[in-house]
Write a structure and sequence with these properties.
Layout: E1 2-3, H1 5-17, H2 23-38, H3 49-57, E2 68-73, E3 76-80, H4 86-104, E4 106-112, H5 121-129, E5 133-138, E6 144-145, E7 152-154, E8 159-163, E9 170-174, H6 181-190, E10 199-200, E11 206-207, H7 210-214, E12 217-218, H8 224-241, E13 262-268, H9 280-288, H10 304-316, E14 318-319, H11 322-333
Parallel strand pairs: 3-4
Antiparallel strand pairs: 1-14, 2-3, 4-13, 5-8, 5-13, 6-7, 8-9, 10-11, 10-12
Helix pairs in contact: 1-2, 1-11, 2-4
Length: 334
Amino acid sequence: MLVSVECLRESAEKALLSQDVTPASARTQVDLLIEAELRGLPSHGLQRLPRLVARLQAGLAHPAASGSGHWTRSGVLSVDGQCGLGPVVMMHVLEQLTRVVQERGIALAAIHNANHIGMLAYYAEAATARGLIAIVMTTSEALVHAYGGTEAILGTNPIAIGIPTGAEPFILDLATSRVSMGKIHHHALTGTSIPGDWAVDAQGRRTTDPEAAKTGAIAPFGDAKGYGLGLSVELLVAAMAGSAFAPEVHGTLDATEVSNKGDVVILIDPAAGAGTTAGLATYLDRLRTSRSADVNRPVAVPGDGMRARRAKGLATGIELPKPLHDEICALAAG
C-alpha cells in the first residue's frame, strides 16, 4: 500500500516517543528509516522500527544516549555509544569530527556499543553536504560465508564513500555480501523468493527460500574480491573499535542482546590535498554520456538511482506492506 511520507514519519516518531526517546533523537532515527525507504532500501527502512521499539523496551537501546568519546590521538576519536540509537550516535560523531577535520584535514572515529546505524549513505551524504569526503564502515553478525565456504563466518560489512563534487555528490554504498540480510528479511516479509545465487541454507545448499536463507549464509559479492573486501572491513573495524568478530556479534537483528558490532567513520577535508573537487562533476557527467551497452539505459553513476527513487517517493508516497503499516500504527498508538 502507498502511504505518504509525512504520515509515516509522524507515526514512526510517535512509536519512538512512546518509549521515552527524545524528540530530536526520534526525528534523527526516523529520518534515516524514511530516507532508506525513499531510496528503495526497505531492508534498512521501517521494517526495522518494531525491532527498535522492542530493543528500547528491553533496555538494549538507551532512549537519550548520544555516545561519549575521547581523543586518543589528535585526529582519532574513540566512542562508547552508550547503547544509544545508532543514527543518533553517528550524527553526534560527525559533528565532533567535522570540528577537528577543518583544522587537521583528516579525522577518524571508531565506535563500539551503539545500536544498528542503518543505511551508510545517510552519513556519507551528511558529510558531503559539509564539503567533506567520508568513508564509513560497519560490521554485523556472522551472515556471510567465505569464498569457497558455506558457513556463516563474516559480517555483511558494508562500506560507503561520499565525495562532494560541486554538484550532486558521489555516493557509493554497498554491502560486501551479495545482498544485505535485511533484504532477505524483506523478501521473507513480503513472501517473495530470492535468486538462487544469493545464499545457502543451514546445510550449505543453494536456496531460493528467504526463510531458509535467514538460518544459512549469504554469498560474498564478486566471489574472492567481495570476500577480501569484507574481511578487510571486519579486521579494520575490530582493530580500531575493539568490537567483536562476526561469529560473536549480536544485537542488530534481535531484541535480546546488546549490540557489540563496531563502526568506523573517516572524514577528509578535500581542501587539505593538492587537488580540487571543482572538476569532479564534469567528469561524472562525461561518464553519464559515455557510450552505453544498451541505448535505452544510459550509463549511471553511484547515487543517481537512489536520488531518482527518492524524488519519486516524495511525490507518490512509500510502498509499504500492509501488515507492517498496521504494526507501525499500533506502535504509534501505544
